[in-house]
Amino acid sequence: MQFGVMDNARDSLIHALDYYTKYIEGHKNWTDDDIYMEYFSFLKMSVLLTHHAIELFMKISLSEVNELFIYENLSDNLILDIHAFKVKNKSKTPLIGSVLSENCNVKTIDYNTLVIRFSRIFNLSKDLSVALNYLGDYRNKIAHLGIEMPMEYYKVISAINGALKVIKDKTYNTLNLTIKMDDPIYEFYDYIDYVIEMGQSVEEEVWSTYYSNNFIILNNHLDDLISDLEFKDYLKDNSYEINIKKGKFIDSSYFSIDFNNTEENLSFTIDIKNKPFSDVSIFFDDEGYVFAVLDQKDFLYNENHRKCFYCYKSPAYPSDDEFEEHEFWKDDRREKKCNLYEFNYIYLVKCLKQAVEWVVDSTES
Which of 30, 49, 51, 50 is nearest to 40 (CA)? Predict the structure, then answer.
């Protein structure tokens, strides 16, 4: 039996994508318990194989930076002897290949340490770094005992999507240096974009279903806006009117509010962007300014009127990297850039009024 580290990683990636695609395509076709369990079996295998693939790809990438980064004990005599032989003989054989060919019993770093080193050296966002840690946790639960996530399994899907994104975005250059251009892996790199896109769609669908009661309340508040005479008068005084677009279902997780100026050719739109991995919905305009963030997890368990609505004093304008940070709104809260309220109709209106006032002020200036 012979599996080089790249062959091993590639083989696991190919099978991970195969199982994950089967899960994605079958997600909407569940008709009975047998099929239901079959598709969760595909998801289970996706976790195990994606974890194996990303672990090896991270090790390969770190080895490209420094061959010693992936070993647990840098004082191991065997590792040092092989490395010294390479240096002395100016060998171009990678250290990782020499260790395999010598069939050495040398320990590499554990997965958690690997994620820490890879995240720091390759500048992973907090979201992706946390996703890799979650993937490791889910892999360990599945491999050693089992997993019980009957409703919150969107987090498993999030972790797989995050790992595939890391493979595509962060290890591509390493693979480009290591694999010949005619290697079949490139067919799968073209395919990964499709798989990630479809995976994110399923992730958000499962997440939205989990928080469906939250979205029913949100949709009711949007309906109330249309019939709120006081709010209409406020908009009229500022020369604005609104048009709300949302899904046809009472728990639709998408909406947009168009604010149209009745005197000038001016308008702006507030949309919602859901981040299932972080359990939040972000209210932002068409230029990328963030007006509010709703923590759906805290809102779900809101019997004690828990504060969960981050309403910005002035719209934030996070960069693309900041937007991908795990919980940038909590950092902004600590820096007093936003207030934290209970989520209800009163505070939703307050947030929208602040948005209108900011637009009016910025237009006049």
Answer: 30
Identify which of 24-33, 189-198, 216-225, 281-290 has the greatest average pLDDT. 216-225
What domain range includes position 172? 5-70+108-210
Q: Are 300 and 186 in the same domain? A: no
Burial class of 99 by CB neighbour count within 10 A (0 to 12, 13 to 18, 19+): buried
User: Is the pLDDT reported for residue 364 higher than 70?
Assistant: no
SS3 11: helix
pLDDT single digits (tens) 227-278? 999 999 999 998 989 999 988 889 999 999 999 988 888 888 999 999 998 9
Mean pLDDT within 133-154: 91
Burial of 217: CB neighbours in 10 Å, binned 0-12, 13-18, 19+: middle
**The pTM is what?**
0.84
Q: Which of 154, 186, 210 is the last residue of a domain?
A: 210
pLDDT, greater one: 295 or 6:
295
Is residue 19 packed enough to be buried (19+ CB in 10 Å), middle (13-18) or exposed (0-12)? buried
- Do 301 and 355 reside in the same domain of the chain? yes
Residue 93, in any domain of the structure: no
138 and 189 within one domain: yes
Query: What total of structural domains would you count in the chain?
Result: 2
Let me know whether 197 and 224 are in one domain: no
